Amino acid sequence: MNTTAVPVAGHDQPSGISSSAGPPQANPGKIRFAFHRIAILVLFVSQLVTPVVAQVLPKLTIGLAESDKPGDVAVALQVLFLITVLALAPSILVMGTSFVRIIIVLSFLRRAIGTQTMPPDQIMVGLALFLTLFIMTPVFTQINDDALQPYLKQEIEFQEAIDKAGVPVRNFMLRQVSENDVALFVKISRMPPPRNVDDLPFTVIIPAFITSELKMGFIIGFILFIPFLVIDMIVASILLSMGMMMLPPIMISMPFKIILFVLVDGWHLIVRQLVTSFN
Predict the structure, then answer these.
(1) Are 214 and 107 in contact (CB under 8 A)?
(2) 200-223: b or e for each residue (b if 16 or more CB lie within 10 Å)?
(3) CA 20 to 30 Å from 267, out of 24, 94, 108, 149?
(4) Sign for the pseudo-dihedral over CA of 276, 181, 99, 94
């Protein structure tokens, strides 16, 4: 039996509501207006961001180019040589000054006491650097007075400044170097026998100086080891007589070595000996 829906009188549907159950249709005009506003906003933001993005950092490029002027090649080689010297400057500072002897003695001292990492490496290297600066101050002062300042005032040429700067360094090395080490490198280089020390080149003086510094550092380190070695032997003998063979003697002897080093003011003695050994 078919039934049909009949609207009830007095209860008609409102005019604003559709009789269909589907969703309401969107207005195309409003959608176009919203897209226009979004496009204007994006354009405005891009205008604000563009100047910021345009400010890029400068970049450094290194390349090779053809040149008809030999002077350009000479300048490039000078720049390359300067960069190489700056890269080797720490090694030159270490091997051409008193740093070698100082750091060797401090390393021997730390091993003799038995404190493997105390003081730390940073403190040991820092102390060695400051002692090196203190010892080399007369040399650096003479270089500044005789070579650097006249060259900056354009009173002398670059080559003359280099020659004058090498004189105090040369004299310092020759005061510390051993004759046997100089004779060794003169013989190895097969150069003619020099008439005096002024004929010795830096290629002979520098390795002879480093060899002499290593030998002197080991001699001082050996002397430092003797009192601490005696303490180790005494402690080991006492432990052996007491039957404590499994107990490491270094555990017992290290406090006694530290006490001995502090009582005799060891740091004062070491620093004084190192500084006076270069005079």
Answers:
(1) no
(2) beeebbbbbbbbbbeebbeebbee
(3) 94
(4) positive
